Structure formats: structure tokens, C-alpha cells
Amino acid sequence: MTAPAADRAEAPPQRSYPTDEELLARVLVPYKPHCKYLKAAAVTSEAGLSSARCEFVIPESCYIDDTGHLNSVEVNIAYNQMMYYLVAKSVKEGLLTGFETWTLDDFRRHQLPDILIARFASNFRRPVNPRAFSGEMEFRSVSRRAPGGGSPFLHAETSYRYRDADGGRCDGEATLAFVNIP
Questions:
Q1: How far apart (Å, rounded) are the C-alpha atoms in residues 123 and 100?
Q2: Spatial distance between the Cα atoms of 145 and 65, rounded to a whole number of angstroms
Q3: SS (H, E, C) 25-93
Q4: Which end of the chain, C or N, has fewer beta carbons within 10 A?
Q5: CA dist., res. 158 & res. 119, Å (int)
Q6: How many other CB atoms are there within 10 angstroms of residue 102's CB atom?
Q7: Backbone dihedral region of 86: left (phi > 0), alpha (psi from -120 to 50 degrees) or beta?
Q8: What is the pLDDT of residue 1?
Q9: Digit-coded pLDDT (tens) for 89-114
Q10: Structural domains of the chain, ranges and CATH numbers in brackets
Q11: Is the distance from CB of 56 to CB of 70 less than 8 angstroms?
Q12: How far is the C-alpha of 115 from the C-alpha of 80, rounded, in Å?
């Protein structure tokens, strides 16, 4: 027997946000002009977690002759840009558990010195064309920790994947630590 609709707890609605061009430009300020790979990012949120679907263009590698495929350094740079945008948009819209008290000024202050990749793993399934590819990232969990009574930090588990129009594929997981937080 199914409970009447009024008695059932309803899941919070999924919310979606198209690319915020002004915010994207601000998030990419720390990057050199030829290393701004993220071109668009649509964010969705549900139940205190958020995710992004992104578009990337890497006209040429910033550090090596053309390899003809997305390489591990570019995977990491693209992940950083995708993650920074997702956190900033989540802060702006109040989407992500653990960041309820943050403002965009807090994000800017913490962006480079206090958002750390504690673990980063990539699986290259098929070569990805760096000239035009899509990416997805999701926060799987965010928790506040204070090991041994030390300074609190936010611990986040994330996953990501990249694809191109020709079936190229790369995916992986990353663990983040947000340190020096209130």
C-alpha cells in the first residue's frame, strides 16, 4: 500500500543552471590566457550535492609539443577548472553541503591556497581529442573533519569523465581537501 502523497517525504527538486559567463571569467582569472580551457559549464544540484557538464577546447598544449590526444597534465588542468567553477557556482547558488556559509569572496580567497587535491586518479580508456571535448564532474560526498582535534577541513569525494565526438574517453576520481576554513 502506498502512502498518500501528503504523507510521503518528497525529494528536493533537482535544480539546473546554465553557464554563468561572468562567474566563469572570474574563476579562470588565475590561469594564463592560453590555459583557459573551460568554455561552458551547466551545473545541476540535488540533495546537497552538485555536478557539472562542461565543454573544453585546448588549441595547443601549454607545455609540450602536440601529442594528438589529451594527456595527464591537461586532464588535471581541465579538472581544476571544472571543479573551481562547480564550487563557485555551488557557493553562489547555495547548492553544496558544507559550503552554506561561504560567499563568493570566501571562494576567491580560498581558491588557490586552500583547495587541495589530496588524491587524483585517471583512467584513459580511448584517446580524447583535446581540440573539442566534454567533461562531467560530480561531488559524491562532502564532510567536515577535524582529525585529532586539529583544524577542521572539508573532505570531498568527486568523480569526473571526459569524452569526445569520436568515442574518446577518460575518467577518474579525485579527493579534495578544503583547508583553513571557518
A1: 33
A2: 42
A3: HHHCCCCCHHHCCEEEEEEEEECCEEEEEEEECCCCCCCCCCCCCCCHHHHHHHHHHHHHHHHHHHHHH
A4: N
A5: 10
A6: 22
A7: alpha
A8: 46
A9: 999 999 999 999 999 999 999 999 99
A10: 14-178 (3.10.129.30)
A11: no
A12: 10
pTM of the predicted protein model: 0.91
Amino acid (one-letter) located at 46? E
Cell 552554506 belongs to residue: 100
- Taking the C-alpha atoms of residue 20 and residue 172, their distance in angstroms, rounded to an integer, is 26
Q: Classify residue 116 by burial, with Cβ atoms within 10 Å: 0-12, 13-18, 19+.
A: exposed
pLDDT at 11 (0 to 100): 54
User: Contact 133/163 with Cβ under 8 angstroms?
Assistant: yes
Query: Measured between alpha carbons, how far is 137 from 129 in angstroms, rounded to an integer?
Result: 18
Beta bridge partners of 53: 42, 136
Which cell goes with 172?
A: 577518474
Altogether, the residues listed in the chain come to a count of: 182
Euclidean distance between the first and the last CA atom of the chain, given in angstroms as a whole number: 47
